[in-house]
Amino acid sequence: MISVRFFAKYREQLGISTFTVAVNEIDPGKSTVATLKAVLAAKGDVWREILYAENTLCAVNQDLAGDNDVVASGDEVAFYPPVTGG
Questions:
Q1: Of 14, 35, 55, 74, which has the fewest Cβ atoms less than 10 A away?
Q2: What is the pTM of this model?
Q3: Who contacts 1 (Cβ-Cβ below 8 Å, separation ≥6)?
């Protein structure tokens, strides 16, 4: 299983903070963030808008990740909007 987390406005837009994806829903061993995003985007327009927004950030196991980074069973993948502090 891959645990997917959504933060800030993404959590509010989807109405959930966590979602689980079974590894058999994606290609085990060759799965990337891009593969996971495609599976999740198939859930609907809001999902697609969030996942493919130009400024959406992603982390795999709390490390910033890109579309080509590998994901595997047991990983935590988080999607969140850019943040600022001050």
A1: 55
A2: 0.91
A3: 20, 21, 22, 23, 73, 74
